[in-house]
Amino acid sequence: SYILAVETSCDETSVAVVKDGHVVLSNLISSQVETHKAFGGVVPEVASRKHVEVITLMLEQAIEQSGIRPRDLSAIAVTQGPGLVGALLVGIVAAKTLAMALGKPLIGTHHIAGHIYANRLVRELQYPAMALVVSGGHTELVHLESEGKFKLIGRTRDDAVGEAYDKVARALGCPYPGGPHVDRMASEAEDVVPLPRVWLEAGSYDFSLSGLKSAVLNALNQAKMRGEALEPSAVARGFQEAVVEVLVEKAVRAVREYGSRQLLLCGGVAANRGLRAALQERCAKEGLELVIPPMEYCTDNAAMIGAAAYLKWIRGEGTDFDAKADPGLSLEAWSVQSEA
Ligand code: ATP
Ligand code: MG
Ligand code: FE
């Protein structure tokens, strides 16, 4: 099968053609990050307008690069949610138009299912599997009992990890998006400012990051009032160690409890060197299989949407043409209905 996939949920416009759910024939990504930098974050109206400007040309180029004739496409997939409603809408209108013109099925796809199935672009998945989703808007542990069956076992109760990184980065004077800067500073640090680990109730797989973020801001302010300055790299190191320790511990505990055969890391924060190294070391020590996609498939891209949509396509589970952008789309509800 050949699925053409469209992703416009946030500030990346992306179009891909994916063969059989895991072979990427083309995957074009146009990032708006330079546009939004001036505002210190993503401005929704600006994001929608930028998607409109590039989407048509990107559709043409992604098809051309794939070497597949439009009439040979099997289905058109598009991110239906979660995301910015206006941004999602641009992709959905483009995908519906193309699907109607070509007479192909439409597959509305869950953005986080996409992040998780980015791992299928790397390797055959084995179930049950556990996914640790760490992105700009999500921090979740997802149990996959079998292919395409999602169960949320833990989530953040306040900030997402990427969001916390960006806020701490801003307090340390780094430009948006600050996650990679904090990562680099942490790796170069010679000192560590100790910060609290937030575990929540015993046995909970939930996360909380706003307290840690406040602890960073307090430490910076208190030092300032004493007329001292904390070494920014030491703060970055302390923050990163606190975040990574909790993520690794909870992910490994979940893998044990659910008998997962693989741990799948995904989302933009999967780029974090501290997190990758800690997970790799821990999984190697405990004999657990860890899968991490390459960077281009960790941040937002359409190839991952094509990989997730394939789960629905092989089961004949398409989406009605009156489907709407759904910023609150549930991952569990998006699970496949039947066995393949
Ligand atoms: P969602 O998928 O939840 O809707 P998103 O798609 O906007 O969110 P991603 O593109 O997956 O998020 O990830 C972007 C986030 O990843 C940003 O917050 C960015 O700061 C963070 N990030 C990127 N690289 C690193 C890194 N090396 N260390 C820490 N954070 C990072
Ligand atoms: Mg982005
Ligand atoms: Fe994303």
UniProtKB/TrEMBL annotation:
Keywords for this protein: Acyltransferase, Cytoplasm, Iron, Metal-binding, Transferase, tRNA processing
UniProt GO cellular component terms: cytoplasm
Free-text cofactor note: Binds 1 Fe(2+) ion per subunit.
Domain called Gcp-like: residue spans: 24-306
Key word Cell division present: no
Cofactors: Fe(2+)
KW DNA damage (keyword) present: no
One annotated GO molecular function: iron ion binding
Localisation per UniProt entry: Cytoplasm
Reaction(s) this enzyme catalyzes, per UniProt: L-threonylcarbamoyladenylate + adenosine(37) in tRNA = N(6)-L-threonylcarbamoyladenosine(37) in tRNA + AMP + H(+)
HAMAP family, sorted: TsaD
Family to which the UniProt record says this protein belongs: Belongs to the KAE1 / TsaD family.
Protein function: Required for the formation of a threonylcarbamoyl group on adenosine at position 37 (t(6)A37) in tRNAs that read codons beginning with adenine. Is involved in the transfer of the threonylcarbamoyl moiety of threonylcarbamoyl-AMP (TC-AMP) to the N6 group of A37, together with TsaE and TsaB. TsaD likely plays a direct catalytic role in this reaction.
Name of the protein this chain belongs to: tRNA N6-adenosine threonylcarbamoyltransferase
Naturally occurring in which organism (per UniProt): Paenibacillus barcinonensis
